[in-house]
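ok trying this again, last paste got cut off
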Amino acid sequence: MPTERELAKKLRISRNTISNAYKELESDGILKSYQGRGTFVVEEVIPWKDKDTNNKILKFVDMALEEAMSVNMDMEELLDIVKKRIEEKKHAMMRMEACYVECNIEQSKMFTKQLSKHTNMNVYPLTINDLKEKNETTMAKLEKAKVIISTFNHIGEVKELTKEYNKEVFGVAITPDIETIVKIARYPEKTKFLFVCISEKFMYKIKGALEMAGLDNLDIEYTNEIDKKQLQDMIEGKDVVIVSPGRHKEIEELIDKKVEIIKFLYSLDDGSLKNLKAKMIDIQA
């Protein structure tokens, strides 16, 4: 791979952005850095931790095979038992209910969808303010939930606000989508941006994410305005409109074809999702 300095110069973006992208790819096992030699693409894009996990699982499979053979069990019968057990666990997960808590409703809904998709659980979105106000709807959701999930930076507050419900609270990590960051970074220096979202808290979170990526020098206006006329006035003269997922459809209808639109995405960390699924299976057991 080219050096961070070379790639930053070629793409005309901040070196910090390149550095963060390289670190992200290295943590995923796609790149490997060697002192004094440079950064290289890994031949097999499989993180070593995944290989270790596969080896551990294979040992358990071998033990099951040995046990089955010792009692003259047919291999197909063993396979049927394994398949049946997996289906039982999948259906149990589908019956589980959980609450996901975030500081703003926009992110809460976004990550609730991701959690529901990846775990098959029924997950309800809540905010920190919902926990503080505790209306009947919120209390009913908390009562039904088997577990409560939140990002690590809110987990202490969530535990304190829900301690009367005696529920287990699990933390997950979230990361801004690296492709979105790189796409924004590739625009020329004088590009005029408008960022539109629902909540003020999400607006500040995105601002922080762009600053962390070395993009704090962008010519960007932030808003959570809902009036269509004012939005159209704000879009006028802009080259690119960045939107949160909750505003994408609405803003797309207002935008002229000359103005580009980018949906700013955050994702739940894959490692956090795997750990969460493992914990849910433990709870069922």
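PB: full thing came through this time. Residues 178-264 form a domain with the Rossmann fold fold (CATH 3.40.50.1860).
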